[in-house]
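Hi everyone,

Forwarding the result from last night's run.
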Amino acid sequence: MFPFRDAWGDRLIRHPQFIEQARRFMHVIACVVDGLDPDLDAGPRGSAAQRLVRLGRKHVTIEGFLPDYFDVFTRAILSVWKQELKDDYTDETGDAWATLFAFLINNLKIGYEAEFKVRYMDENKR
């Protein structure tokens, strides 16, 4: 699924494709946070939710990707956040990040499930 799946430690964090994936992830976080501002125009690409649904649809085409990975990722990233923030991590910040990730993952799942249905469920009806 990821070309860097066999890399660990320093080799992983220096891998160009891992760095690009991390950059994309942080861009998604920024888009979701920006989307929380009611005064901000959704722009030509739609709201954060719409963009996440489209991104979720794309995950259907990723070879080896399973929808369970959405929940695994959520648990992993929340654990990393807590570990990295150390003393700055409070129940309040934990709840805020959990809420943000729930929004993000729920919309990704909506897109994934819709695209999966179009590609594979409707295909079986033919």
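Helices lie at 9-14, 16-34, 48-58, 68-85, 91-125.

Cheers,
N.
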